[in-house]
Design goal:
The protein has helices at residues 4-15, 28-31; strands at 23-24, 49-50, 54-61, 64-71. By secondary structure, it is an alpha+beta fold. A hairpin with a 3-residue loop joins strand 2 and strand 3 (54-61).
């Protein structure tokens, strides 16, 4: 079991984004709702979250869920395929 807050923090850390989150479509309580991020069916509440540097969003492939992100402003960072194959 996990929640969006943990997964967003992990993605922020992976991307070197020190935050903070400046806007989020979910409330703090909704961010802490636990769900199974393993295979099966998507359970996490849809969201979009912004920091000064990045935009964060849910990704799902075959029911497995995680957080993806893209730069908030134009730069030369390439975005990999989202969702797997």
């Amino acid at each position: 079991m996990t929640n969006w807050m943990n997964l967003i923090e992990q993605e922020m850390d992976d991307r070197g984004d020190k935050g903070p989150i400046i806007h989020n479509s979910l409330t703090d309580n909704e961010m802490l709702v636990e769900f199974n991020d393993g295979y099966g069916g998507s359970e996490g509440i849809p969201f979009t979250a912004w920091t000064d540097a990045r935009v964060y969003f849910p990704v799902v492939y075959d029911g497995s869920e995680w957080v993806g992100s893209a730069p908030r402003n134009p730069n030369n960072e390439e975005t990999p395929h989202i969702g797997g194959q």
